[in-house]
Amino acid sequence: MSGLPACPACGSEFTYEDGALYVCPECAHEWSRDAAAPSDEARAVRDANGNVLNDGDTVTVIKDLKVKGSSSVVKVGTKVKNIRLVDGDHDIDCKIDGFGAMQLKSEFVKKA
């Protein structure tokens, strides 16, 4: 948009300058211009509780999830083992027993 860096805390692109600081209006995070360099933590995928997820982790589904193209539902409390993180809207690739391979959003899981 305006050439300003995205927020390192939440990834919002709606940052603005306030003196010598950058400010995120969505999460209220403030950082200096020197700290505006991208880091590995900005890429970190977090679960619903804010815990950082890694490849191979086990997660638990926290909400009933409808399976697209099917009448079945992934129930709350379903454990998903050996996840793989990918780029995109659905940032978790996994296999769920009884459903097969699918992609999940990290906001609907918590680290087990």
What would you say this structure looks like, in words?
- Residues 45-112 form the Protein YjdM C-terminal domain.
- Residues 4-32 form the Protein YjdM N-terminal domain.
- It holds the Pfam family Zn_Ribbon_YjdM.
- InterPro entries: YjdM (IPR004624), YjdM_C (IPR013988), YjdM_N (IPR013987).
- There is one protein chain.
- With 112 residues, this protein is mainly beta.
- Helices cover 0% and strands 33% of the residues.
- The strands form five sheets. Strands 1-2-3 form a three-stranded antiparallel sheet, with no helix packed on it.
- Strand 10 (84-85) and strand 11 (92-96) form a beta hairpin.
- The model has no long low-confidence stretch (mean pLDDT 88).
Q: What assembly state would you assign to the polypeptide chains in this entry? A: single chain
Query: Could you tell me the radius of gyration in angstroms?
Result: 17 Å
Largest sheet: 3 strands, antiparallel
What's the number of extended β-strand segments?
13
Strand order in the sheet with the most strands: 1-2-3
Order of helices and strands: EEEEEEEEEEEEE
Structural shape: elongated
* Contiguous uncertain segments of 5+ residues: none
Mean of residue pLDDT values: 88
Q: Residue share in helices?
A: under 10%
Task: State the secondary-structure class.
Answer: mainly beta
Please give the count of helices: 0
Work out the strand percent. 25-35%
* N-to-C CA distance: 38 Å
InterPro entries: YjdM (IPR004624), YjdM_C (IPR013988), YjdM_N (IPR013987)
Family: Belongs to the YjdM family.
Domain Protein YjdM C-terminal: 45-112
Domain Protein YjdM N-terminal: 4-32
